[in-house]
Design brief:
Layout (H helix, E strand, L loop, with lengths): L13 H9 L13 H21 L5 H17 L11 H12 L14
Length: 115
């Protein structure tokens, strides 16, 4: 079935898009009918399954999976070395970005922010 320009696509609803426009927000999703955001999410889910679920298992219960997931997310965001950003952890890369691109002082790594 061909869709017209105002009909909802598989990944984007008109109501959602309209609500974003009402509040002046810009959607962080792709265009109607594409799946770019899903591809990125599925890539991270694949890493999670490979690096945490399959590597750390077998599991004895949901609590074990939840704790392992929390540890993996912490490692993924704060410790892992990422090749696309110079083989530094994402947290360090973000701190460097703000230090160089934002004239306002930033909290040190691990300190709470003011917003």
């Amino acid at each position: 079935m061909l869709r017209g320009p105002l009909e909802p696509g598989q990944y984007t609803s008109i109501r959602y898009t309209g609500r974003l426009a009402d509040v002046g927000a810009v959607a962080s999703i792709g265009t109607i009918g594409d799946s770019f955001d899903n591809a990125m999410a599925e890539s991270v889910i694949g890493l999670y399954k490979t690096e945490c679920v399959r590597h750390e298992g077998p599991w004895h219960g949901v609590d074990d999976v939840e704790l392992a997931t929390l540890n993996w997310v912490w490692w993924f965001n704060e410790v892992r070395l990422h090749g696309e950003i110079g083989h530094v952890p994402p947290l360090e890369h973000e701190a460097d970005y703000y230090r160089h691109n934002n004239p306002q002082p930033q909290p040190l790594l691990g300190e709470p922010s003011l917003h």
